[in-house]
Design goal:
Largest sheet: none
Distance between the termini: 92 Å
Helix content: over 70%
Mean pLDDT: 87
Number of strands: 0
Strand content: under 5%
Number of helices: 2
Oligomer: single chain
Structural class: mainly alpha
Order of helices and strands: HH
Shape: rod-shaped
Low-confidence stretches: none
């Protein structure tokens, strides 16, 4: 077997490097997915939700109409 002739310190360094690469790849994938979800949330909020200022204006208009009646 190939690993029989390798020192234990080299095996540990190799395993540490492999674990670091795996963790960094999972972190990168997580960051990418988080950014894409934030972009989709922003698009839904900006395109499909009524801004709070518009709702307040509508509320003031309805109160004025109610007061006039």
């Amino acid at each position: 077997m190939v690993l029989k002739n390798v020192k234990i310190s080299h095996k540990l360094i190799f395993m540490t490097a492999v674990a670091l690469v795996v963790l960094l790849s999972f972190g990168g994938i997580g960051i990418y997915m988080g950014k894409s979800q934030l972009e989709s949330l922003r698009s839904v909020y900006n395109e499909m939700m009524t801004p709070l200022d518009n709702l307040r204006r509508m509320q003031l208009i309805f109160r004025e109409v109610d007061y006039q009646m």
